[in-house]
Amino acid sequence: MNKNIYSGKFIVVEGLDGSGQTSQASLLRDFFIEKGYQVVLTKEPTQDSEAGKKIKEILEKKIEIDPLELQKLYAKDRKEHLESTIIPALEQGKIVISDRYFFSGLTYGTAHGADLNELIEMNNDFLLPDLTFLLKVNPEVCIKRIERRGDPKTLFEKEERLVKVWEVYKILPNKFKNVYMIDGEESIKEVFEQVKKVVFLKLLKEN
């Protein structure tokens, strides 16, 4: 993994589907804007690249694909995402917040049958975030949240699949730097208080 050498900061919010990572990413964006920073909020997979569009069809179960081939699509989309959005913003000194990144590929890909070490190798040339927040939410709770949304379930939104995904997520703080586990089962506000504590401690150096 490549360390961020740019003047901006790169933050990622990760978790199971239904863990609340999208809400926390949005709150983080608002928090930094209030403090006077320029912020880019983005997400993966993107909707812009050809790979991203194909991923969407696969997740919606419109087409089937081998697990490793799916992760190759994610990596292709991620490369374009870094080159077109993330790195240019970091070069300008902006804070980039991404709702999901390669950690999702490692976890969901492994749960779907791909080899973890092969997936790590596939993502090895990408940028390592300055901070990654991993929201810890029981898979059963995630499924209930997804069902409350009322949207059709995507490829990975089954409890037994999410249990496998979480087993991989749990080992990420030991494999990568700057990954912080956050209790995601509290209220949205309480979860964000935990996020802010890490931000102050690791990025803003304020008390």
**How many structural domains can be distinguished in the coordinates?**
1
- Fourth CATH level, the homologous superfamily: P-loop containing nucleotide triphosphate hydrolases
Strand content: 5-15%
Specify the helix fraction band.
40-55%
Got a strand count?
5
User: Largest sheet, order of strands side by side?
Assistant: 2-3-1-4-5
Structure notes:
This protein has nine helices and five strands; from the N terminus they run βαβααβααβαααβα. Helix content is 53%, strand content 14%. Helix 6 (139-149) packs across helix 7. The model has no long low-confidence stretch (mean pLDDT 91). By secondary structure, it is α/β, with parallel strands linked by helices. It has a single domain (9-204), classed as P-loop containing nucleotide triphosphate hydrolases (Rossmann fold), CATH 3.40.50. It has helices spanning 21-34, 50-59, 67-91, 102-111, 116-122, 139-149, 159-169, 172-175, 188-204, and strands at residues 9-15, 39-43, 95-99, 131-136, 179-183. Strands 2-3-1-4-5 form a five-stranded parallel sheet, with helices on both faces.
